[in-house]
Amino acid sequence: MRVLDVLAALGRRGLVAIVKIDGERQEPDARRWTFVVTGGALTAAPIRVDAVSPAECMEDALRILRERGIELS
């Protein structure tokens, strides 16, 4: 699933989501990519994923969303 499709699907569910790249993190294995989801059923326990690559970030975020009962297809 493309990033914009994931964000749109989360928005339709009333959730708030952001994807961020932190260019200031310059170490070779720095976790520059961040994905955050909050709101709705996640208000008490938001999801935050930090990863080295955008693909890893999205894979981890989608896995955690599925574990929390939020299936995006």
Compact summary:
This protein has 73 residues and is of the alpha+beta class. Helices cover 33% and strands 23% of the residues.
Characterize the structure shown.
By secondary structure, the chain is an alpha+beta fold. The chain has one domain (3-67). Helix content is 33%, strand content 23%. The protein contains 2 helices and 3 strands, in the order H-E-E-E-H. It has helices spanning 3-12, 54-67; strands spanning 16-21, 33-38, 47-51. It has a 3-stranded antiparallel beta sheet with strand order 1-2-3, covered by helices on one side. Strand 2 and strand 3 (47-51) form a beta hairpin. The termini are close together. The model has no long low-confidence stretch (mean pLDDT 92).
Features:
73 residues; alpha+beta; 2 helices
Q: How much helicity do the residues have?
A: 25-40%
List low-pLDDT spans. Answer: none
Round the mean pLDDT to the nearest integer and report it: 92
Give me the secondary-structure category.
alpha+beta
Strand content: 15-25%
* Major sheet: 3 strands, antiparallel
Strand order of the largest sheet: 1-2-3
Shape: elongated
Radius of gyration: 12 Å
> Number of domains in the coordinates?
1
Count of alpha/pi helices:
2
Distance between the termini: 8 Å
Number of strand segments: 3
SSE topology string: HEEEH
